[in-house]
Amino acid sequence: MCGIVGYIGTQKAAPILLDGLKKLEYRGYDSAGVAVQTSDGVIDIRKEMGRLRILAEKLDGGQVLEGRCGIGHTRWATHGKPDSLNAHPHTNAEQSIVAVHNGIIENYSELKKNLAARGYEFYSETDTEVAIKLVDYYYRGHKDPIKALSEFALRVRGSFALAVLFRDYPDEIYAVRKDSPMIVGIAGGESYLASDVPAILSYTRSVYYVDNLQLCRLGKGTVEFFNLDGERVEKSPVEITWDMKAAEKGGYEHFMLKEMHEQPAVIRDTVNSALQDDNSVDLSETGISEEELKKVRRIIAVGCGSAYHVGVAAQYVIEELAHVPVRVELASEYRYRTPLFQEGDLVIVISQSGETADSLAALRLAKNHGAKTFAVVNVVGSAIAREADFVFYTKAGPEISVATTKAYSAQLAAVYLIALKLAAVRGTVSAERNAELASALRSLPQKVQMLLDEKEEIKRFAFEAMNKKDVFFIGRGIDYAVSIEGSLKLKEISYVHSEAYAAGELKHGTISLIEDGTLVVGLLTQSGVIEKTVSNMEETRTRGAVLAAFTAENNRKLPAGSDWTFRIPETDELFAASLAVVPLQLFAYYLSVLRGNDVDNPRHLAKSVTVE
Ligand code: F6R
Fold first, then answer.
1. Sorting pLDDT into bands at 50, 70 and 90, what band is 248?
2. 20 to 30 Å CA-CA from 302: which of 86, 146, 559, 603?
3. Residue nearest (by alpha carbon) to ligand 1 atom 6
């Protein structure tokens, strides 16, 4: 989603802003812009529709702008179409207050009306322009940026990370945030501001996370934080331990391909972070105690997109191993329901970014109702991680490709560990079974590697399936959980229409869509239901479908006349999702490449969905 970068220091600001925005390109955007201020206060705004490189070329890499202080933005359109007028930065009438904004101002039309009644005019369709004019309105009274931004924060509804330049304060950048991330980094005489760590990682590893409803003022190499009453707040920086190389392609054609290949290491690191040599699981780093785990009577797993799909797999694994009932909820739906919480509820919020607006809202809803909250999050220090009672950090490292692969795999590993721990405290698995499961977990990385090594086979399959218009993924139980993820991967990056169905549901309506040549992909890893899914696949074949089976190595029950069969190494069936998903990721990837799509930045999508 939108990206923000700010810089103030001794060097020209624009090249640093463009460099930071480049690092945020992966988040998805449709226009880009910068505003640079000279020490006499003059603010120069430049923005362009389309890729960042167009803006960079026009600005000769930023060299044409002299100022040493500035803000930059990549916009993912919400209010107003993607064009250069609606692109950020936006300004007040005099170009004396200029800002960039991430998030959504929900009451912007009401504010716009009030401001228009006071004589304000608007040149764009954006909520951001309204935000700036509201800041302008408050600022006129007292000329105090901190006060104006506090008044703004109290008046607006919605989410915002706002970075602002004031002509009256040429050597300063101001910022305020609510529910949209913002970080600050200081290195020597230089100060940096960003919506996400990769933007400034090459300049500093020591970052301050601006808290919700907090403000900050950046000078050259200085930062001060304030609460909404204008009182100073002391904060300590956090050290970022990511390797910068993790945010580079490292010889792979796309980030997605690289990230798929990182899955063995990511699963190994995540498993090793909690699984002990004696096969016990230690979750003490998450902050949850065994006593608290013993009190759990029900789990509500919440997430969006692929993170939700992890919740679907978790449901089967946790219920089977720990005998705790699990509900799986789409965060965007759950947050608006009337929640019925009960004693012993544990709400597990799954999120790679830790910033997804709906997942964050679901977490807050649960907290407000007194439920305990447990986050499975990848980005250290993200909002969900900070607000949850307990946090399991997955060890995926930075994920750049918009379509998640390695973070999904790390989340699966995390929920397996949670299931094992719950089973241990509740005494629902024997020591022998626990040892078997621990050994299966330890062997997952090597089996994922075997699947990656077979990628040429999947590439051929993608080539043959290249012109398919509809692809159905079906499976039962954990195979259903994998089907919904495989189908989403295909849709989002290859733009091929696809649906995923619990295999038994097909004949309750959807089977009428099957025609000559429709591709039906069946997942066959769960021995108890393989025969059932095979029958469902055959039912589609008699109606013209072509079949592809992704099946456990030793399974011999295959649909008659399957057109393609792919073998998945044997593992404990509860963990089969971690293996079965890999060829489906590869399939989506190769189909996307063959169709000439922008694999890492699929159309209309954004990496971290910070608006609802
Ligand atoms: C799909 C994908 C999305 C995310 C979803 C949740 O490939 O990446 O469906 O899984 O937007 O994002 P996080 O995990 O950051 O909350």
1. confident
2. 603
3. 304
